[in-house]
Amino acid sequence: MTKSAPTVPPGEGRGAVAHLPQVSPQAAAVDDLVTLRDFLRYAVSRFNVAKLVYGHGTATALDEAAFLLLSALDLPIDQLEPWLEARLVRSERERLAHLIEDRIATRKPAPYLVGKAWIKGHPFRVDERVIVPRSFIGELLVESPEAFAGDPESVGSVLDLCTGSGCLAILAALAFPQARVDAVDISPDALDVARANIADYGLAERVTARAGDLFSGLAGKRYDLVITNPPYVAAAEVAAFPPEYLAEPVLAHLGGDDGLDLVRRILAEAGSHLAPAGTLVVEFGTGREILESEYPALPFQWLDTEMSEGEVFALAAGDLAGRSAPVASDGRRRRAKR
User: Fold this and answer.
1) pLDDT the model gives residue 12
2) Distance between CA atoms of 272 and 266, rounded to whole angstroms?
């Protein structure tokens, strides 16, 4: 007589682990983590395992985690230490755990997840309609406006081309208190975000968001200062973007085969829109050798910052007269905006 197999109640004996309830990392974080320090350590570990890519205002898993957590808790993003031992209520723990998993699952840059990005202490609304603001020109406008004009009070008009979120136009209005600023972009969606940021800063009387393809629609207008952080990434680089960069509008990155198509157009047209003593300032990535070989007669003035060298140039209106046509160049690939 054949023996029947013993009956094993579910959850007991061999294979019992399979019957245990499965707890998600998000649920475990909410139940087990207590302080901001706990969540910071947890986020860094999760981000490292997921091999996330950074570059939207942060450069490491630690910086990304700190920005995400502090922003979500409405705490100053440059003051981590005072809050590390703060105990979090359950609703805060749930929000942080959700954001950590969202960053991994969607691969969206942290500023999109919290709806805000910062340039030198100045917050700006952001979403997928605009590139996440990060600009060396922005740093200079906040810290060294004299790099653009010896007397900031003398600047009466500014043009910001490819304005995106409007961040540079707003920082220019703050740096040059007498100036009226035109913020131009080809994307209607980007202009909607720019207008919201302009309103947040109470600058609607001085900063105007305008639709246009570079200088189109500005016939006859001249400015004391033209600033621009245009798309400057080569097509091959864009095609190889990681998900974090693909989350941004491709239009805000793509600069042609070598990344400098729009920069060449700006150099060709800017002279017609600068006041006699006006200045053009362009952020363009790492194409310095290409520009210097294509425009040997242009006396580029390089405006370096703590984090950049040879990625921002200035030219006076007189420098552009008759010298803005490029000579032949072999071209090189550009890297993504940082």
Assistant:
1) 39
2) 10
